[in-house]
Amino acid sequence: MITQRQIPRVMLIGLSDPFKNKEDMLADFEEVESLVSTFGATVYAALVQNKTRGNLDTFIGPGKVEEALKEIMEKEIDIVVINDAIKPGQIHNLLLAFQKSNPKILVWDRVSLILEIFSKHAKTAEAKLQIKFAKLRQMGPRIYGMGMEMSNQAAGIGAKGIGETNTELMLRHWQTEKKKIQEELDVLSKRKMEQIDHRKQIGLPTISLVGYTNAGKTTLFNRLTGLKDFVANVLFATLDSTVNKFYLKGLGDEVYLSDTIGFIKNLPPLLIDAFKSTLLETVNADLVVHIIDSADPRMEEKIKTVEEIFKNLGIKKENVMYVFNKIENNATLNRAKITNDFKEFTPSFISAKMGDGMTELMNLFATRLKS
Ligand SMILES: Nc1nc2c(ncn2[C@@H]2O[C@H](COP(=O)(O)OP(=O)(O)O)[C@@H](O)[C@H]2O)c(=O)[nH]1
Ligand SMILES: [Mg+2]
Prior knowledge:
With 371 residues, this protein is an alpha/beta fold. The chain has helices at 22-39, 62-74, 88-98, 110-121, 125-139, 147-156, 160-202, 217-225, 269-274, 276-283, 299-313, 335-341, 358-370, and strands spanning 9-16, 42-50, 79-82, 106-109, 206-211, 242-248, 253-259, 287-293, 320-325, 348-349. Magnesium ion is lined by residues 217-218, 262.
């Protein structure tokens, strides 16, 4: 357990951006709130900080730090989450400041929060390693706790040599550790590529389900492969990808289907980089199926987010098809418009939950795979 309390109490610090409209900001806030609940904590307090002041030592201004200290004390906050990607030094300074109100306080930014969620649910050795690697890279040598601080203090009282040695040791240890994990990950990636090659040699096509988190990938995966796995209504609970076979009638053969992690907005490039071996499955698929929650008012924006990530991963447009899910939840969905707007991605409309549109979807899989 990370904190003393069963369900940790979180204080959110959100950013108000003068160039953003209020609706977008609220959506940002909602997303980080659901990340917090996915982690298994509850939001007890929330503060808003003006984005323009982002480059301070403590990221937020001194007045805001005071305000936060009061809230931490009064609401017995365990974890402070800043809804942005901030510098490790700033996280560290905030930690030192907030410890005045709660010596056991934890301070996370958006990246740390995502990593903690993955940590909690990681099952495979690969997922665990990827998380460790991302954490190491995110925090730098500071990941070894207070070591840096102690060395600075030592330097201050005239024992400069010791301070420098400590810092150097820390840095060296960090570099060695990083290299070691990188090598282990390379071995795993190689093994995964061999598996992918092996599947290709067998000659079965591969289909990868991808998309924004909570779009219904796992529900569809389970329906198609006949599994009855537990589907949680949480933002991406796991980093592990699952591969299974199912028979595709239109093709007259089986295909490999993989269920992968969900994406979210502002997924830091560092995470994509660290999770590359998980994403290999998707990058190498014959057909990349982008699952979209058609009942989501922010659907268009989320489609763009995923497209951006596809581009970063080097996924070819001609391998992608769009599937609009949860249709039973949106009576006013304009299918004609969507079909026209996204023509090149051969859109189809389904309800993974109710089973609507499955025959058409599988026929389309077969057609796309044959072409
Ligand atoms: N109403 C509705 N809900 C769905 C549908 N498909 C999935 N869901 C729900 O959406 C949530 C997220 O589904 P999940 O498959 O875990 O999404 P993933 O994050 O993309 O894997 C769950 O609560 C599902 O029950 C659908 O077709 N209709
Ligand atoms: Mg899922």
